[in-house]
Design goal:
alpha/beta, 16 helices, single chain, 16% strand, three-stranded antiparallel sheet, 30% helix, 3 domains, globular, binds iron/sulfur cluster, 12 strands, TIM Barrel
Length: 420
């Protein structure tokens, strides 16, 4: 373990009143029996091979997973056949967005193939250091829209509450790479949370609060409850949402205690950051079932990534898999032009072709909204393949999913309804 990195990484906020504690102390355990969590054969084999001293209970303890994340080259080389490109990129890294992979999530990666989709999203390569025109460290202009640190107020009725700079795993294409994983100018603390809560309480137009980060589900259950209870106590806050990747990369975190706590703060919705069908394991089936059974509506958010999930077939498999887990495909994002992300970005036409390949060819619930988060703070802008083919008199000409042309008598264009 690289001790310097361990010290530099941002910890989820604490009250500051308690004595200093190490990250994820071994003595703190969830009340339930951790052995009850399912473990796939693949994960079991990985644990026995690479963590032979870890018991099933250790493996299923989310704090053990966090303490034993893969964070340095030596551990990567113990587990994977690291390519020369990966090795050089890891050695070159400084600052925020460090390497961080839970053992569970690493068990889903190919040991030998550096082109493996999930592996590419979490082990850096040299292309990450190429800076292309149009890229930026804060492409969405979030810092500009922050009335208090850690709170983005762009749309009148909702805010983005950045709760922590900590994630259980670090995605190489992260839009907030400037602030996650420590090493930057961003800090998160209870006084900062309080300032954000005070701002929300003072602005009655805010009816919807999205907790994000970093990953809010890495915060200890009692601290997260403190935050949710303060927000729920504000009369005009109607709706709470949590954006998280934890149920996919650290499903063991979705303990019965956590779920019991979350269900006290309904209406509470959750957006799950999902990348590839390889993530949909028995462990994830359990984490999503626990959340869905607690009445938490689940939606997915997926970033379109070159060579990783940029085909109709992969995306259809992913969306169908999500529906089986009771997760509604919600957004498909064009990859933000974050600094060093060119190797992940696809042409916009790729996303349109995927939507064209889904819409009409499968159940409508399986089709996400394809959006670009407009650089500079313009917000999400939906993109659709061209189904509108023009007009013929008062008829609307429309192209269906098979490319066939159809007419719709449009009363708004001078027909009998429009004339009264
Ligand atoms: S989990 Fe989300 S916030 Fe964390 S590194 Fe990945 S994309 Fe960024």
């Amino acid at each position: 373990m690289d001790d310097q990195r361990e010290a530099a990484e941002t910890e989820p906020p604490s009250s500051g009143a308690a004595p200093a504690r190490p990250l994820f102390p071994a003595t703190v355990k969830d009340r339930e029996r951790t052995a009850a969590f399912p473990q796939s054969e693949r994960s079991r084999n990985f644990r026995r091979r690479h963590f032979p001293r870890a018991s099933v209970e250790d493996w299923n303890d989310w704090r053990w997973q966090l303490r034993n994340r893969i964070r340095d080259l030596a551990t990567l080389e113990r587990v994977f056949t690291v390519s020369a490109d990966e090795r050089a990129a890891v050695l070159r890294h400084k600052g925020s967005l460090p390497v961080g992979i839970t053992p569970y999530y690493a068990s889903l990666f190919s040991a030998d193939d550096a082109a493996d989709p999930l592996r590419r999203t979490h082990i850096p390569v040299g292309d990450e250091y190429l800076h292309m025109p149009g890229e930026s460290d804060d492409p969405l202009g979030e810092d500009h829209d922050a009335p208090v640190p850690g709170l983005v107020h762009r749309y009148p009725d909702r805010v983005l509450f950045l709760t922590t700079g900590f994630c259980s795993t670090y995605c190489r294409y992260c839009t907030r790479s400037r602030m996650v994983g420590g090493g930057g100018e961003y800090t998160f603390s209870l006084p900062q949370w309080q300032r954000a809560i005070d701002y929300i309480a003072a602005h009655p137009a805010i009816r919807d609060v999205l907790l994000s980060g970093g990953d809010p589900l890495t915060i200890a259950t009692d601290k997260l409850e403190w935050l949710l209870s303060r927000l729920r106590a504000i009369p005009h806050v109607e709706f709470l949402r949590i954006g998280t990747k934890v149920p996919l990369v650290l499903p063991q975190r979705v303990t019965r205690d956590l779920v019991r706590m979350l269900r006290r703060y309904h209406p509470l919705w959750m957006s799950l950051h999902v990348t590839h069908p390889d993530e949909l394991t028995p462990e994830v089936a359990e984490s999503t079932a626990r959340l869905a059974d607690a009445g938490i509506p689940l939606g997915s958010q997926t970033v379109l990534l070159r060579g990783i999930n940029d085909s109709v077939e992969t995306m259809r498999t992913l969306m169908h898999g999500l529906l089986k887990l009771r997760v509604k495909p919600y957004y498909l994002y064009q990859c933000d032009p974050i600094t060093g992300s060119a190797h992940f970005r696809t042409p916009v036409e790729t996303g349109l072709a995927i939507i064209r390949g889904l819409r009409g060819h499968t159940t409508g619930y399986a089709v996400p909204h394809f959006v670009i988060d407009a650089p500079g703070g313009g917000g999400k802008i939906p993109l659709l393949p061209e189904y509108f083919a023009g007009r013929d008199g008062s008829d609307l000409l429309l192209r269906n999913f098979e490319g066939q042309l159809y007419r719709y008598p449009d009363p708004g264009a001078g027909g009998p309804c429009a004339s009264g």
